[in-house]
Amino acid sequence: MKIYPVILSGGAGTRLWPLSRAALPKQLLPVVADKTMLQDTALRLNGRPGLMQPLIVCGNEHRFLVAEQLREINVKPLGILLEPEGRNTAPAIAAAAHYLKAIDAEAVMLVLPADHVISDTEAFYGAILRAAALVEHGALATFGIVPTAPETGYGYIKGGEPLPVGDNCLKVDRFVEKPDRATAEEFVNAGTYFWNSGMFLFRAGDYLKELQQFQPAIASATAEAVEKGYRDLDFCRLDEAAFAASPSDSIDYAVMEHTRHAVVVPAAIGWNDVGSWSALWEVQQHDSNGNVSRGDVYLDGVKNSLVRAENRCVAVIGLEDVVVVETNDAVLVARKDQVQRVKQVVDHLKCQDRTEHLHHTKVYRPWGCYEGIDVGDRFQVKRITVNPGGKLSLQMHHHRAEHWIVVSGTARVTCGDKVELLTENESTYIPIGMSHRLENPGKLPLHLIEVQSGSYLGEDDIVRFEDVYQRT
């Protein structure tokens, strides 16, 4: 049996604001360890017998970050499917199923969210093998996490009658929404309820068959989206109109709650979906006072808390059960039992037309990144890094001029018909309306300071003439 991991890397991760934002969500951040959560997910089962290279499903805005993070860990994906817009998990998985079925008619899909923690990979691989025995008989298997506490932040799966194969696997009796505390305690004491992990194993064809029965509009729209999809560099773009026509629905609501073939594979694998700051505190190593700290942090009389500093020194004194997270442009301070209300902060920022929920001061691009370091009336200053071989688009601006000062590395600058090389401590000027391009022809990163001046400094004041990354 060939098992194809399908890694779902969508979502904005708003519950881990201010670290996680729309342009750089938690799955693309080193939230738990040194590698990003996407990288940990891709490496978790890499090289295991029977498991093929992963298929990634992500949004268009994250495509270059996803590709670069996989390159960093030497994982060559089977493909990267680009969703034109988020339509929840049922359409995303359906698109992956159509894509895989065209490659391998008997393809088995292992559906994995990109932002989960699994500490016992051996036990997880064992659970996959148990599920595979059921999939051979047409089952749609979900992994039910053996609960360790009456958790109210997870949905539950009630196990039904035992199955003759699969080693302690059960038919699914029903799916249960997130319970209150008393109900969660009843579930744990009953011993037949499991946390709903959102991970699945089934044949692509079996999933599509059930989807066609219960949600034919999703099945047909995603089939058309894949059929009309097209290559864009190393990516596969799903057809925009067809995918947008698909109803938005989760796999649980669309298929798993209705199919007669749903089975649950109990799994004690050290799983956590890291859905909040308190959950992140739980999965990390604590000091003798129960604290988790990262960055330039000073603690005095602090207990059972998470304190994270990204840029500055953060000092916390005499507090217990708190979360403190500092970034360059926002600080979160909350009681650990109130962190689910972080989403309200994000909603507030949206209503105020602010940008702190969208991106950090450092913004990543396929050629490198830039970071805003100062802004005022009619001027803006950025720190720009261009990766070796990186090349910005040939472009022009209607409302701003730019001054570039090379800090380190070598820059190839095109300004109108003139092309020149600049090195450390050299600078150039780009007038308003002049076509220009910045490149790094060297083997080391190029660092420079850009000073923009003009009547309008928005990122949308750009006209691209040529772009190696085929952005529009």
UniProtKB/TrEMBL annotation:
Keyword set includes GTP-binding: yes
CDD domains documented for this protein: cupin_PMI_typeII_C, GDP-M1P_Guanylyltransferase
User: What does it catalyze?
Assistant: alpha-D-mannose 1-phosphate + GTP + H(+) = GDP-alpha-D-mannose + diphosphate
Q: Domain (Nucleotidyl transferase): give its ranges.
A: 5-288
Q: List residues traversing the bilayer.
A: none
Could you tell me the keywords of this UniProt record? GTP-binding, Isomerase, Nucleotide-binding, Nucleotidyltransferase, Transferase
Provide the protein name: mannose-1-phosphate guanylyltransferase
Q: Which GO terms describe its molecular function?
A: GTP binding; isomerase activity; mannose-1-phosphate guanylyltransferase (GTP) activity
Q: Which family does it belong to?
A: Belongs to the mannose-6-phosphate isomerase type 2 family.
Q: Which residues form the MannoseP isomerase/GMP-like beta-helix domain?
A: 303-349
Main EC class the enzyme belongs to: transferase
Question: In the record, which residues are listed under signal peptide?
Answer: none
- Where would I find the Mannose-6-phosphate isomerase type II C-terminal domain in this sequence? 353-467
Q: Which GO terms describe its biological process?
A: GDP-mannose biosynthetic process; polysaccharide biosynthetic process
What EC numbers are recorded for this enzyme?
2.7.7.13
